[in-house]
Write a structure and sequence with these properties.
With about 600 residues, the chain is mainly β. It has four helices and 44 strands. The protein has a domain of about 100 residues. The protein has a 15-stranded parallel sheet that branches. Strands 21, 22, 23, 25, 26, 28, 30, 32, 34, 36, 40, 42 and 44 form a 13-stranded mixed sheet that branches. Helix 1 crosses helix 2. InterPro entries: Pectin_lyas_fold (IPR012334), SACTE_4363 (IPR059186).
Length: about 600
């Protein structure tokens, strides 16, 4: 939420020297190749070669692959070195992935910016961590409002002391994890998350100061705490539906779902990517009831059918691989693209490791997906360049007409960024023209702050520009956990029929200089969530829309949501807030319904519309 005041804390200067020493120890053995920890000796080999066994794929210098037989202290030193580099690296270009081969480990793994921790078993029980896999906010004195861009997946954690901590905000997914104990979603200060899916927590989840949170397809021992907007779908043990007090929305099942593809491997050199099958009416996790080592139903793609992409590769080389029918596995780094990546074949998998980032540099899209079935795009950041692009990711050309109900396109853990420490310009971030697309955790963000300490700040109203966050023209599109913030016109604009959104978090732009600069014709401001006038059927559930007009608190928004007034266009459990104690006004929740969120009455709710 209010992230403009993010700064490094002084203790980072004290640790800087130690960090450099630790990083020197970490990188000295890589020599440009992937860091492999040998089960036999603990040595790291340049070419991914384990002297005791068999060579592994070369994932590059920023992927660390841990073997369970290595000395625990060596593992701890390696992961500590990465964390010391990344803990407060809010806008760095450095990216890291830490992969754990099947086995048991003792480690305290702290997850910093642009770091992904992955078990690479076929089941969360294949990789066990006795210790922690945790995200904290010590770098900002317990304030987790800026703990973005990180993730943990596909492992079991037995936390020391009985409680794990995942104190995060947006773009920090917690997926396919078995927590054998409690889970804390805060670090004492504010937090603005969040997303958890396909997880079991045997103890209690403590929401604490979390402002909002989405939990899907899981099992909980218990849940404590609720603030602005909490939603549960297909979760055993979820609290009862009780909106607006407390603000809990509960749905018993997930209507349609394809879990995110995941990488798996072992110490025999067997590597692949599992693409889980499409499911309907889902409750609980995808993995409970299956044995360790069992792959879920779906498609298995050997890793040899992927191009393992490296940041130095050209867009032309990546497109050549796609045209040959290869899938793409992006290793950590920033990919500066001189042309769009064109995904034209059905069933193509595009998977990122370590928050791999695609950045167009010549005013094109970063990626374009054809109107074909079964494509998965997951685990990537799309970052706008200084030369204005029409779109960052376009899914289907305009006018796409094919139906993909039996094999939909999946967009999972995708994050979009406009501005921050570099100028970013784009017309819209994400455009969906295909039918039947499933979105599963999207954060679409026009920056509201940069790097104050390094004087790298490029987020002004006329500097880093973007009209819309997401535009959906396809029919029967379903999105779970949609986060869209700070765009200059509509945050979300929906023209397709029978669209569904389950959980929506949106902050309006902080920086309209005055009301005249932010008018939709004669209407005060641009609605956060706009459904086109001709749409006949639409449904959205658990929406939180917030105003903080810090540049000019007199700015007003007429309606948080604008939509046709039809019984088949429905909204359930809508919340508005005027943040900062009333810095700005939202006059209505949906169309002309609902009271104003404004100074003196900062919080409003609406259970249903119409």
């Amino acid at each position: 939420m209010r992230k403009a005041q993010v700064k490094r804390v002084g203790r980072r200067k004290i640790l800087r020297g130690l960090r450099n020493v630790a990083l020197a120890a970490f990188t000295s053995g890589t020599k440009g190749g992937m860091a492999i920890m040998s089960a036999a000796t603990g040595a790291m080999n340049r070419d991914g070669e384990n002297p005791a066994k068999i060579s592994h794929p070369d994932f590059g210098p920023h992927v660390l692959v841990a073997d369970p037989a290595m000395p625990p202290q060596l593992l701890q030193d390696r992961v500590d070195a990465i964390f010391m580099e990344q803990e407060a690296a809010h806008f760095t270009d450095r990216r890291h992935a830490i992969l754990f081969l099947p086995g048991q480990y003792q480690a305290d793994i702290r997850v910093g910016f642009f770091t992904q921790v992955l078990g690479v078993g076929t089941h969360p029980g294949d990789v066990g961590i006795d210790g922690h896999v945790r995200a904290t906010a010590e770098w900002l004195d317990g304030n987790a409002l800026a703990n973005f861009w990180r993730g943990a997946e596909n492992l079991t954690v037995k936390p020391v002391g009985g409680a794990e901590r995942w104190a995060v905000s947006q773009a920090a997914p917690y997926r396919r994890i078995d927590v054998q104990g409690d889970l804390l979603l805060h670090d004492g200060g504010s937090a603005s998350g969040g997303f958890m899916a396909d997880c079991r927590v045997t103890g209690t989840v403590h929401a604490g100061s979390q402002q909002q949170w989405f939990t899907r397809s899981g099992q909980l021992g218990a849940w404590e705490g609720c603030n602005w907007n909490m939603m549960f779908m297909g979760v055993d043990g979820a609290p009862p539906d009780s909106f607006p007090e407390p603000a809990v929305t509960r749905c018993e099942t997930v209507p349609v779902l394809r879990e995110k593809p995941f990488l798996y491997g072992d110490d025999e050199g067997d590597w692949g990517v599992c693409v889980p099958a499409l499911q309907r009416s889902v409750t609980g996790t995808s993995w409970q009831g299956r044995g360790s080592g069992d792959l879920p139903p779906g498609r298995v793609i050997p890793l040899r059918e992927f191009l393992i992409a490296r940041p130095e590769m050209s867009a032309g080389a990546l497109n050549a691989a796609l045209s040959k029918g290869q899938h793409l596995l992006f290793t950590p780094g920033v990919y500066r693209l001189e042309e769009p990546l064109n995904v034209t074949r059905a069933g193509t998998v595009i998977l990122g490791l370590g928050l791999a980032t695609l950045k167009p540099v010549k005013g094109t899209a970063a990626m374009q997906v054809a109107d074909v079935p079964g494509v998965s795009v997951a685990g990537l950041i799309f970052d706008a360049g200084e030369v204005s692009s029409p779109v960052l990711l376009r899914v289907g050309p305009p006018g796409s007409a094919a139906r993909h109900r039996a094999d939909p396109i999946l967009l999972a853990d995708l994050y979009f960024r406009v501005g921050g420490v570099e100028i970013g310009r784009v017309k819209r971030c994400l455009e969906i023209n295909c039918h039947d697309v499933i979105g599963d955790h999207l954060w679409i963000w026009r920056a509201d702050h940069g790097d104050v300490d390094r004087r790298r700040e490029h987020f002004g109203w006329d500097e880093s520009t973007c009209d819309e966050g997401i535009v959906v023209n396809g029919d029967d599109v379903t999105i779970y956990a949609l986060f869209v913030e700070h765009f200059q016109k509509y945050q979300t604009y929906w023209t397709g029929e029978r669209g569904r959104v389950f959980f929506y978090q949106s902050e309006l732009p902080y920086d309209p200089p005055d009301q005249s600069a932010w008018m939709a014709g004669s209407t005060y401001g641009w609605a956060s969530y706009k459904v086109a006038d001709n749409v006949q059927r639409h449904a959205a559930t658990a929406l939180g829309i917030y105003a903080y007009f810090r540049e000019n608190p007199s700015v007003k928004l007429e309606s948080a949501v604008e939509a046709p007034h039809r019984v088949t266009v429905r909204f359930r459990n809508v919340t508005t807030y005027s943040l900062g104690g009333g810095v700005g006004t939202i006059r209505h929740l949906v169309n002309d319904t609902g009271k104003a969120a404004q100074p003196g009455a900062v919080h409003q709710t609406l259970k249903s519309y119409p």
